[in-house]
Design brief:
Number of strands: 14
Shape: globular
Order of helices and strands: HEEEEEEEEHEEEHHHEEEHH
Structural class: alpha+beta
Distance between the termini: 43 Å
Helix content: 10-25%
Number of domains: 1
Largest sheet: 7 strands, antiparallel
Radius of gyration: 20 Å
Length: 353
Amino acid sequence: MSHHLDTPEAWQNGQLYIDDLYVYTADSGTVLAMDLNSDVTGGLHPDLDESQAQPGFHHEARYEFKVHFDGAEREALTYRVTFGEPDADGTQALQLRVLTDEQAREDGAEGELALSGNTGEVTAGSGVRLFAGRVGDPFYVDLSLLARVNGAVKDGTAVDLSGWDPAQARNSFADTTVETIVLEVSHQDRLLHPGARIGVWCATKLATDSGGWRAINRAGHPMMWPIFWPDDVRFADALSSRHPYELDEERRYVERQLTAVVAANGTSEDPQGYGEAVAEILFPDVLPFIVGTRAVYSYPHHNGRSPAGNAPEAMMSLVSCTAVPSGLGPSTSAHLRRDEFPYVVPMALVARR
């Protein structure tokens, strides 16, 4: 039968919706992690129809980590993860392929098979290990605070923190889960060796009826969608599918809105200059990282991002040009982070707590 993979109904699937990207150093390698399909409000994605919210990973999709080196405009390394159809208990077969140089940019390239395994299990290959499955979500933010910031950005007005008490902050993501793909690449890797300067983004792609691939969703810097495009939950904006070095229109929008916010806040003597400076940081929308170093995503320092870091507070402060205390910190979700691979807590273990 036809799957109608080129229809908007096929694209609007929680399994393709990226919630977070993490890049950090752990053990003896670099971790690239992609979280998808949050159940933050009780459905597998709050803004998608129930029929579109399914557990697991889309078996006709690709999940890709894209890596740029030394500020290059095009990626020279892609880690591609694909999944089979779920069996009776929901387990899916998976494969990891590595694509380098020109192949890293080509949907038609096959790349090199690095490992095969199943969801819910740790699978190791030569210099890599992978886990994919549903886990407790370590992300933390109070959505009522975020609403104050993205409302100001949308309207170009001052951020109103009157009545906001950080001591009363509550993590809106407490007791929620996500599908995650956690990939660790050894520091012995010829490309991701300590000292390498990289930029990372991730993408979901869906097979088309004609045999090609359609880019569906993408992520680089944290909080970009919640702050700047909070209403685009159905991948309507071209930002979802375009390459991060091809976002000129989006960059101009961010610059305009932040200039207006900072002018209304009165927190910079040069709002236009500040808007331009922040746009320079956030575009192209790739997450910068020096391999082998500690990941820190703070205001204003950006070097990777770990699950413990308070990226929401950093981003809200950055766009406001003033400190925006979230009232939350790493201890908020410490019970959902582990010291050993895959560094997160699978849902089966969360349920036992």
